[in-house]
Each structure stands twice: as C-alpha cells, then as structure tokens.
Amino acid sequence: MTTSQNAVQTRSQRLADFVSSLQPDDLPAHVRQDAIWRLMDTVGVSLVGSRMDYAQPIQKVFSEMGGRGESTVIGGGERLPAAATGFVNAAYAHGPDFDDTHSVAMVHIGCLAVPSALAMAERTGATGAQMLTALVAGAEVGLRIGAAAPHRFHMRGFHATGVVGPFTAAATAGKLLGLDAVRLASGLGLAGSQAAGLLQGLHDGSWVKRLHPGWAVQGGITAALLAEQGYLGPPQVLEGGWALYAVLLHGDSEPVDLDVLTDGLGTTWLLPETTYKPYSNGAWNHSAMDGVAAILAAETLTYKDIARVDVTVPPECIPVVCEPRDAKIRPVTPYHMKFSLPYSVAILAVLGHAGVDDYTAEVHADPDIADLASRVYCDADPAMAPDRFPAKVRLETRDGRHFSYDIPAQRGGPGNPFSADDHRAKFLSNASPSIGTPQAQQLMRAIETVWEMESIGDLLRLAVG
User: Fold this and answer.
1) Which residues pair with 319 in a beta bridge?
2) Which of helix, strand or coil describes residue 394?
3) What distance in Å separates the CA atoms of residue 97 and residue 54, rounded to the nearest whole number?
4) Following DSSP, what letter does each residue of 230-253 receive, concatenated?
5) Residue 67 has what DSSP assignment?
C-alpha cells in the first residue's frame, strides 16, 4: 500500500488513502476468511429478510421506481440500479436482526458492507477478490468511525449502523469504481450528510430501524457516484467543528478518540472482531439467553421451575433492551420483542428455541412467555466493560434454590467464536426455506470459493428463489 505525502491530511483523506491503495494481496488470510464468512452470513440473513412481512412494501416501492437493471435483489431476483439494489438488500439483511454486531463500534457491519459490495461488484464487473477487498475496506472505515466513539451514538438515541453506514457504503462503492484517494475523500465527505437513524423504534415496536442500513447504503453508493463525477465533499467531515462527531455528539464531556480512525490501518483489522449472532434478536440479549439455557439444561429445570431471573449487564445494555421496563415486558409488536431482554429470555426458556420464526403474533400472545418475562430483571454493573456483550445470570427456582452462570463473551464473537460448521449450519438454516436445500448448498459452495471467481453473477443467480 502507498500513502499520500500530504502532511496536512484530514482523517477522511487518510481513510481514503487506505481504501484506494488496498489490494487483494494486502489482506491477511484470517481477514480474507472472515470476509467470506461475513458474506455467507449476510446473504443467508438477507434471504430470511426477503420472505418476511416487512419485505413486501420495500420490494413494491423499489420495483415501481424501476431504472436500469445493474444489480440483483437477493431472494426476488429483480434487477435494479445499484443504489436501489443496495437499499433493498441492506434492509433485507438487517430486518430479521440476525446480522453481526461489533461490540465496541456497536455497528451491524455486514448489512452495510456486503450489500454495497455485491451491488457495485455486479455493476462494475469486479472479480470475487476485488469485491471482497472492497467489502473489507468499507467495513474497516465504518467500524473505525463507530469505534472512535464507542456506544455513544446509541446513548444519544442514534442507530450507529445508520450513522456510519453511508461512510461504509461510499468507501466500498468508491473502491469498486476505482476512485483515486482525492475522489474517495470527497465521497466520504458527501456521505457524512447522510449519517442518521433514530432508535425510537426500539421503544414502540415500529419497523423503521430495519430501513436504516437501506438508506445508508443507497446514500453511500450515491455519494461515491457523485464523487466519481467530480462533486466535492467536505474534507473535514469527521473532525470539523460542524462535522459528524461535533454535531451528533454535541455536549458530550468525553472527547472522541480520533486516533482510532487511522491508527493501525492495514495492520490492525476490526472486521474479524465483529460478533456473529446465534439468535435473531438484539445482540445484548444473547449472553443472558445462553446463561439461562445453560442453567436449565444443567439442573434439568423447565421454565415452570423459575421464580425469578436477574441479569447483570454493562450500563450500555440497559437503554437498548432493558428500559423502559414497562415497554420491555409488554412489547407492542412481535418485532418489539426482539429488543427486550426479558422477553427474549422468556421465549427461549418457554419454547426451548428462539429462531427466526419464533417472533410471531402467536408467541407475542403466549401468556406463559409474558408471565416469565415479567419476572426477568436487569441490573447494570458499571465495572462490566461492554466489549463482547457479557452477562451474568442469577436464577431462583420456586422451591428456593439459586443458580448462577456467567458469560464473559457472547457466542459467535471474539473469545467465543463460531466454528466453520456453525457458519454453514446457520446459513443453510436461513437460506433453505427461501431457495431450497440443494440450491442453498450450491450457493454456500459458491460463497466459499468466491475469492477465485472472475465475476459474481453466477453467485447472485443462486441467491434468487
């Protein structure tokens, strides 16, 4: 890789240098392999999203918009302009809430980088290696922007995925367009004005959060296309006085660590540190769910034996899946249940599973689940770091016994990673209902060999039902 000699580069210009100069051979083997798993995970979850109720309005709106058929919509197979395809696939990838999450940046990076990379690789005729290199480059940009202010967008009510998503998409798209560092920096500057996403939907069960990655990817691809044509974006979009952090985090007493944006670029990789999800709900729920399940299994208990569950979590968890308590123990919609730690614990304890098909109106109306959820309590421990989504579970039985289980790292992430078989099993479980098991197996094999592909058209044709 080469670096510009400009001694007064802004942070976005330094990120643009990294993106423009990154080559396939620069990716270490573990980063390349993670990008392949990331692609597999995101495509599988997108196929889940494509068959859910929220997908129909998205599909109808964008199909009616029309436009030049540049890229393939996963599941349905419609051909749309790359930016529109990016919107649809990103919304599909995030909607089931089964997509990856970085525990420091608090960003769902797969639903941003993968749809951007697929849409633009198909438009530009990129090879599989070029597509994965752009995916990694864009992911590193987005994750670093989030990690420079860990959890702080969420604490302000912003969805960090929506905030950093346009930067991720602009970097990914710009890389595949072959933009030089100057135009890439303009693309990042333009993307900053798209940085958004309000988390009010976590409190009322509405669907808007599912659209945040869609808007982000559409906006980021558009920013890169405008930059390709010479449109100028602000070079100080990250550190300026009216720029991203200064505006969205205005008044915070803690400074943003701008060095995180560029320190170790090309040697320290954040993408492989991003946690894959074992359950189709908010990441903060998972360790508590696994802890309760482990106690029930070890002690041969059922949900009927539970008197009370106390879960201790980092403070950053509380406003996302624990409070306001009344909303979390009385969710308004099936989607709302996904962002309730008490409800997710209760679903797993009562049903014995919590899969993509378990967040339904029938489950929402189950009185046993509602009763148990009302007896699950969350407490914050300021001494617990949020990294790796830890939880401590204390379970009391109706006959007065007490059991404890600590989970220092969520399953699927650093410290408790998925195996290759875990990745494959999750993908087949997600993809098979949409495209059938034989085709899902073909698609899985294609994804695992994508690095060697001359183009990704055949892979995407397999991702259509």
Assistant:
1) none
2) strand
3) 13
4) T----TTTTTSTTSHHHHHTTT-S
5) -
Could you say which of 354, 380, 407 is where a domain stops? 407
Cis bond leading into 324, ω under 30°? yes
Q: State both tokens at 352.
A: 């014995």
Residue for token pair 């699927």 = 412
pLDDT for residue 2 is more than 50: no
User: Does residue 99 sit in the same domain as residue 246?
Assistant: yes
222 belongs to a structural domain? yes
Q: Which two three-digit tokens encode residue 359? A: 């967040």
pLDDT of 145 higher than 50: yes
Are 68 and 205 found together in one domain?
yes
CATH code of the domain containing 188:
1.10.4100.10
What single string gives the DSSP state of each residue in 194-231?
G---BTTHHHH--SGGGGHHHHHHHHHHHHHHHHHTT-
Q: Which domain holds residue 150?
A: 11-273
Distance CA 82, CA 68 (A): 9
pLDDT in tens, 362-398: 999 999 999 999 999 999 999 999 999 999 999 999 9
Does the predicted TM-score (pTM) go above 0.70?
yes
Alpha-carbon span 404 to 388, nearest angstrom: 19
> What's the Rg (C-alpha) of the chain?
21
**Distance of alpha carbon 433 from alpha carbon 136, whole angstroms:** 29
- Please, are residues 161 and 94 in contact by the beta-carbon 8 Å criterion? yes
